[in-house]
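Q: Is it fine to ask for two folds in a single conversation?
A: Yes, each is treated on its own. Send the first.
Q: Here.
A: Result:
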Amino acid sequence: MLAKRFRGFFPVVVDVETGGFNHETDALLEVAAITLKFDGESRLVKDQTFHAHVEPFDGANIEQAALDVTGIDPYNPLRGAIHEIEAIKELFKFIRKGQKNAECQRSILVGHNPTFDLNFVKTAAERNAIKRNPFHPFSTFDTAALAALCFGQTVLAKACQTAGVGFDNTEAHSALYDTEKTADLFCTMVNRYKALGGWPLNNNSSVD
């Protein structure tokens, strides 16, 4: 069913925490991903979760302003951070397994302003010469745009609150928490659209 819903794409919700905004120069510090599935009532729900703290790559730029927002101490041994190449390899392995089980043709990144997340993941893969990136190279599902359409909100916290998805601002800017809430928001919008009669489409209908 999942393979038929999104034109063969396997949706994977992703969030990253970084040392800045420049995906070419700034460190990838944390990455989380959640796969989705349809339950027994044909509702889209969260499935499997991946989460890793990441060691800054050699020569990475880290802006103090970014750390002030995330609260991350990149060199704290208690983070249990792993090398960037290991994190990306394990992320891609996790995604490809879910994609295969769902019988989808390719994965697509779902995120809140997802170009940011996709660029950091792609650049980390390229930096470590990791091939077979499961994600579509430029297409994404943007929950900020979808939330603007559905709820008149683009900020993740406000969109979740309007959608009836609980959001704790003290937990924000953790890759895992933000991924969980983005996944909840995306599932809420997809399921609400279905409940309103928008899916499956009536093949006999015509569009002027």
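Q: Second one now.
A: Result:
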Amino acid sequence: RVTFHNPPFNIYGPNTTPQLNKVVTAIEADPHLKVVVFDRDVPHFFLTHYDFVPPLTDTTRLPPGPTGLPQLPDMLVRISKAPVVSIASIRGRASGVGSELALASDMRFASRERALLSQFEIGAGFVPGGGPMARLPRLMGRGRALEVLLTGNDIDGELAERYGYVNRALPDAELDAFVDAMARRIAGFDKQAIADIKVLVNLNSLPPNDQVGAEWAAFLRSVKRPAAQQRISQLLQMGLQTNPDVEKRLPDYTGKLGESSR
């Protein structure tokens, strides 16, 4: 079990990267591990967007990972391809990196009442960088993927299940027991058989590594543009990363940007 704990909003930043890399490396190297569950213990937030306060060079100067990709897409690809079943148990907001980590996991289960998934980046004027353009169309089809990516709106648990964003949405009171029972059932089976099945399913479902890497390059290009920098600055002034209401209702606030110019 990997529990995200970076209060108050579970924001992902360059300081988080080495911690996650240690986790992914341990998942790959453990000869006995069969299943890993990703969850959180910060109220209202599963895992959220990238940290906009540190300079971008704190991210770009990180060396490539073992796949040759930059650090974040490298780790997401490795999670998908590890000989271990990964399950995202989503309660609270999974925006940006949180959504991308969930998409990289083998299975996703969401609280019907308390899960919110989104790729909010369009509202801040830049392109997502962790693979959602490569992964979402494979899960939900082109039209629904474009709806998620081009509106930046929240997708609640029930709609996420209907669209194929998650495997199932369950009543919040039942989520933990359901995920735990599934994880334990899978963990009772043969590790080599699990790994072999994953390899063959991956051949028919995962995007090539270079498609995921291309999104990171597009993210870096887009986030440097003056229009994106202006919108990010506006969001920070509104209270992004400091005001709980902004983090809880991020699509509402991104929708207010540029209203005067319409």
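Q: Anything structural to flag on that second result?
A: Two points. The CA atoms of residues 27 and 33 lie 7 Å apart. The chain has one domain: 2-173+185-254.
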